[in-house]
Design brief:
alpha+beta; 2 domains; four-stranded antiparallel beta sheet; 3 helices
Length: 166
């Protein structure tokens, strides 16, 4: 009887060891596959991030903050503050009755035009998007920082897109 008991215990421990070995071997293989998949994903994400950085650098090429010549023109001044000042002055003119005078178009369809988006391109030009809710267009403005710190504008060109009712 003792002999049978030891035999059964030996077989039981052998089975436990085999199952434990198989479990940990499979777990290790699964973890290794998971790590490899994560490394591949991280590499792809890094490549994607690099591509997005290059894309952003290309898109921000025409901005006052990234234009070396414009920075030299405003030597000793904060170009970010200048860009904010120019934007604020353009947006202030949106509250003018009859619409923003920088656009150059009168109110159409009973709605005045106002500027919605602005990008300060360099030390002289601004491009802006305008709309009255039904019609839209774009305007290129020249801006000048006066001696007293005020900003003056001159419209260079405007385009109003064709109205297509639905």
């Amino acid at each position: 009887m003792k002999k049978n008991l030891f035999l059964y215990l030996f077989i039981f421990s052998l089975l436990i060891n085999v199952f434990t070995y198989m479990f940990f071997t499979g777990k290790q293989k699964y973890e290794q596959e998971r790590v490899t998949a994560m490394e591949t994903k991280v590499k792809a994400d890094k490549d994607s991030l690099k591509a997005e950085k290059v894309k952003m650098a290309n898109e921000n090429y025409f901005t006052l903050e990234n234009d070396v010549n414009a920075k030299e023109y405003f030597a000793g001044q904060d170009v970010t503050a200048i860009a904010i000042k120019v934007r604020d002055e353009i947006y202030k003119q949106n509250i003018t009755p009859g619409g923003n005078p920088l656009i150059g178009y009168p109110a159409m369809d009973g709605k005045p035009f106002s500027i919605a988006k602005i990008r300060v391109l360099n030390h002289r030009w601004v491009i802006a998007d305008f709309s009255n809710g039904l019609r839209w267009g774009e305007v290129i403005l020249k801006y000048f920082i006066e001696e007293d710190g005020s900003v003056s504008f001159e419209r260079a060109d405007t385009v109003l897109y064709e109205f297509k009712p639905y």
